[in-house]
């Protein structure tokens, strides 16, 4: 089987929104292909189930009611151009500054002693 070379469309720190559902978030990790459980994947209705051979993104996500972690296929994400920061309480754990113009966060600098 030929290896597929996938390049992620979105970057860590970028604010994105879901194409179908009303939530948005900041990307804190990327899997080059699907890396969740088969149970998770099979729980998605077959007519909207994404392909596994694409990047999947871990988001610190929010909707109108709550904040949570989401795992979303690249095909279901769009760049969020609102210029608004994400209110998820774990954002400061991963990121430093929100750049409104770029619609993205800067990763925290880790210093070793």
Concise structural overview:
With 113 residues, the chain is mainly beta. It has one domain.
Gyration radius (Cα, Å) is 15 Å
* Count of domain modules: 1
Q: Count of helices?
A: 2
- Which strands sit side by side, in order, in the main sheet? 4-3-2-1-5
Q: Note the overall shape.
A: globular
- The total strand number stands at 7
Please describe the biggest sheet, giving its number of strands, its sense, and whether it closes into a barrel.
5 strands, antiparallel
Comma- or semicolon-separated keywords:
113 residues; mainly beta; 5-stranded antiparallel β-sheet; two-stranded antiparallel ribbon
How would you describe the overall organization of this protein?
This protein has 113 residues and is mainly beta. It has one domain. 8% of the residues lie in helices and 34% in strands. It has helices spanning 38-42, 91-94, and strands at 15-18, 24-31, 56-62, 67-73, 77-79, 95-99, 104-107. Strand 1 and strand 2 (24-31) form a beta hairpin. The chain starts with 14 loop residues before the first strand and ends in a 6-residue tail after the last strand.
């Amino acid at each position: 089987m030929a290896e597929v070379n996938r390049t992620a469309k979105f970057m860590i720190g970028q604010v994105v929104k879901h194409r179908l559902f009303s939530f948005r978030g900041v990307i804190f990790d990327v899997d080059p292909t699907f890396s969740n459980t088969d149970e998770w994947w099979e729980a998605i209705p077959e007519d909207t189930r994404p392909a596994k051979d694409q990047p999947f993104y871990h988001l610190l996500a929010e909707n109108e009611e709550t904040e949570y972690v989401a795992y979303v296929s690249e095909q279901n994400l769009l760049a969020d151009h609102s210029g608004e920061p994400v209110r998820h309480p774990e954002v400061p754990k991963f990121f430093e500054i929100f750049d409104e113009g770029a619609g993205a966060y800067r990763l925290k600098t880790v210093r070793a002693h």
